[in-house]
Amino acid sequence: MRVLGLLFSLALADRSPLEARDDGKFWLNGEPITLVSGSIHYFRVPNEYWLDRLTKLKYAGLNTVELYVSWNLHEPYQGEFDFSGDLDVVRFIEMAEELGLHVIFRPGPYICAEWEWGGHPYWLLHDTEMKVRTTYPGYLEAVENFYRELFGRVNHLMYQNGGPIIAVQIENEYAGFAEAQNIGPLDPAFLTWLRQLIKDQNCEELLFTSDGGWDFYKYQLEGDPYGLNFDDVLKTVNFQTNANLWLSALENVQPNKPMMVMEWWSGWFDFWGYHHQGTTPASFEENLRSILSANASVNYYMFHGGTNFGFMNGANFNTNSQTGGLEYQPVITSYDYDCPLSEEGRITEKLDITRTVVQEILGFSPPEERPADPEIFVYETTVASEAASLWRNLAQAETFASEECIAMEWFPVNQGRGQPYGYALYRSQASFPKGNITIDGMDKALSGRANIFVNQERVYSITNTPGNQNILSEIPVDMPQWGNVVDLLIENSGRINYKKLNDAYMGLKEQIGFGGNFDASWNIWSLPFDQEYIESLKWDSNPVMFIDAPAFYKFDVYVDEPMDAFINMTKWGKGVVFINGRNLGRYWYIGPQQTLYIPKTFLTRRDYNSIVVFEEIQAPEIREIEFSATPILDVNQEEWPQPQ
Ligand SMILES: *[C@@H]1O[C@H](CO)[C@@H](O)[C@H](O)[C@H]1NC(C)=O
Ligand SMILES: *[C@@H]1O[C@H](CO)[C@@H](O)[C@H](O)[C@H]1NC(C)=O
Ligand SMILES: *[C@@H]1O[C@H](CO)[C@@H](O)[C@H](O)[C@H]1NC(C)=O
Question: Which residues form the Beta-galactosidase galactose-binding domain (predicted)?
């Protein structure tokens, strides 16, 4: 034992950390090294598949895996931590180590990543003064509490403690933050503070920042208003194409140091209502060759994208490519990313290109044995067995009366913790007389997507999609009878992860008026559509065909041996799919995503599995779901029945 212990400490003493030396090279443990790394977000992949995805990363010829940390999932409520199951980041890192991979650790706290609020937990919004990514004291305190918890768990995985983590990122694209925010002054002191916080957690690994290539031109022109200039922190660059241009931008501001592309965008992500995005294998190969030929290290963002299960997609607040105006752009459920490993773990052409290029340019010899692609099973088309109208299922939801419309984070529900995600229903207490009226102030109040119902018939939808981003300040609505009820069903379609990060409240943030009168009072229902709610649904005794949206439809699918699948929602309108109570994600006829990935790990063997679809617009005439052998991620359906 003593001999072993001695050997062990000798071995540790021999481990010298990753260094970015002035000879332009990375050195690890006394050897120069080129890092060829790939991003996998453990929180976007069921844990049962981590080993498969990491094995495929190794098969591609990569020597490092990079991961972000999703603060919002790890600390769903303030001070309550979850690092289990799909959130067992320690296990994920250990698995990488067992495969002989190095690990690059990017703990945020802001991760962008097309993820709900860039990884920030919703409860930060309980402080109305909250300014994320700044030295605002309430933010610093929350970050510090989380980092103590997180680093306490991963400390033994640091390279100098014998683990695989060789580098740790400070913040995320901070140089692009000020411009993106449109909200006031830069706060470079935040980076200084965060760097110290990481060091205070006994982390002695190489620290780095990462920023867009274009930000280095700004940096050069404007000096360093971003606070990036630390002696002991390496700058790394992010881009998709024009490798030589952006690498030289980095070299200009940081000569003689090894160059690393921390995010080489190997594909791209999608927004609802836009066409499918990606990069061609040819462009991918050309840029990979340029990066490696320049002796730079690289991290593929992404190597394997995975899925925004549940309500975890983010949104951009960005320019509409057609109108030039700013708009809210929610991200789809799939995070396939058009990268080397598809959403369901299939090897793509980009993976094979990677193998060839790293052998040719770097002389790497990736493993020969090709891991198997997933087998996709096409379950039988199934007709709904039962249905439940939303209107008849409000009783199980928490509800309260309010003089004003308020954001969901402020709802007095959920043991006083407000509502994090999902839908909310705002019903005016007024009974409106026959005639025409306007619904006023949606343009200012709405954060998310709205369906307006009069007497429980949908009369208007506000979608934040191309060409439809202008919300009327006065929406004309016809009140057809004597005594009309107005319901506003609001979806939290995902908090913004890029640009305009502050003021992230969802729902109706301000009062809504009718015909110029803002005195309305409300009954509000909190509809998080969590497992408890889905399992509490009261199925209607009327035949399924008579139950119209907004409603839940239940399908019993017999599963013998669970296998991965795609549910094809092409015929449906817009909504959410749940499997055995678990939220799979959103679908929407406008695309580009038409199928949802079902990992076999969500299914129960030799049993009827319950699929529940929440449809908010219109179910197909025959209430059936079908499955497909392949994903559909590139179809936009323009034609769809509009109300009235
Ligand atoms: C890359 O490194 C090799 C070996 O050190 C050197 O010969 C070559 O000139 C370098 N290439 C570039 C573009 O710096
Ligand atoms: C309300 O306005 C619609 C057009 O927006 C019109 O067709 C309808 O006749 C109007 N109803 C009343 C009662 O004025
Ligand atoms: C998906 O469903 C639509 C509508 O039923 C059908 O036309 C299409 O062929 C299906 N696609 C696949 C890949 O199964």
Answer: 550-605
* Contact predicate 491/448, CB 8 Å: yes
Indicate which residues carry an active-site annotation: 173, 263
Q: Sign (positive/negative) of CA torsion 123, 128, 133, 136?
A: negative
Query: b vs e for 566-588, b when ≥16 Cβ sit within 10 Å of the residue's Cβ?
Result: bbbbebbbbbbbbbbeebbbbbb
Rounded distance from Cα 256 to ligand 1 centre (Å): 13
How many domains does the structure of the chain reveal?
A: 3
Give yes or no: residues 499 and 614 share one domain.
no
Dig out the tokens for 355 from the structure. 């193998």
**Strand, helix or coil at 21?**
coil
Q: 123 and 30: one domain?
A: yes
- Give the mutation target among 31, 256, 292, 295 for probing the ligand 1 site: most ligand atoms within 8 A of CB: 295
Say yes or no to pLDDT of 369 above 70: yes
Cβ count near 106 (within 10 Å): 23
Nearest atom within ligand 3 for CA of residue 595: 1
Residue 572 lies in a domain: yes
Using a 6 Å CB cutoff, which residues line ligand 1?
Answer: 294-295
Of ligand 2's listed atoms, the one at least distance from the Cα of 478 is: 1
* Contact (Cβ atoms closer than 8 angstroms) between residue 617 and residue 608: no
> Tokens standing for 346?
């299939």
> Residue 641: pLDDT above 70?
no
Give the per-residue SS3 of 617-640: CCCCCCCEEEEECCCCCCCCCCCC
Cα separation, 380 vs 205, whole angstroms: 52
| 3-class secondary structure, 473 | coil
Q: Quick one: pLDDT band at residue 1, thresholds 50, 70, 90?
A: very low
Distance separating alpha carbons of residues 351 and 56, to the nearest angstrom: 9
> Are 179 and 264 contained in the same domain?
yes
Domain span at residue 57 reads 11-362
Ligand nearest to the CA of residue 475, numbered in listed order:
2
- Measured at the alpha carbon of residue 144, what is the angle toward residues 140 and 150, in degrees to the nearest 5? 145
Domain co-membership, 469 together with 514 = yes
Per-residue pLDDT reduced to its tens digit, 370-417: 999 999 999 999 999 999 999 999 999 999 999 999 999 999 999 999
What atom of ligand 1 comes closest to residue 294's alpha carbon?
13
Backbone angle region of 370, left / alpha / beta, with phi > 0 → left and psi within -120 to 50 → alpha: beta
Ligand 3 atom nearest 627 alpha carbon = 14
Rounded Cα distance between 349 and 366, Å, is 16
| Cα 349–Cα 308–Cα 146 angle in degrees, nearest 5 | 120
pLDDT tens per residue, range 312-356:
999 998 887 777 777 889 999 999 999 999 999 999 999 999 999
Residue 89 corresponds to which tokens in the numbers above?
A: 């980041």
DSSP 8-class letter at 407: B
Clarify whether residues 238 and 336 are in a common domain: yes
| Strand pairing report for 206-212 and 233-239 | parallel
98-151, pLDDT tens digit by residue?
A: 999 999 999 999 999 999 999 999 999 999 999 999 999 999 999 999 999 999
Domain identity same for 444 and 570: no
**First-residue to last-residue Cα distance in the chain:** 80
Using alpha carbons only, give the angle 84, 88, 94 rounded to the nearest 5 degrees. 145
Rounded to two decimals, what is the model's pTM? 0.95
Contact 435, 476 (CB under 8 A): no
pLDDT at 642 over 80: no
Q: Is the CB of 480 under 6 A from ligand 2?
A: no
Q: What is the mean pLDDT of the chain?
A: 94
Q: Whose CA is nearest to atom 9 of ligand 3?
A: 628
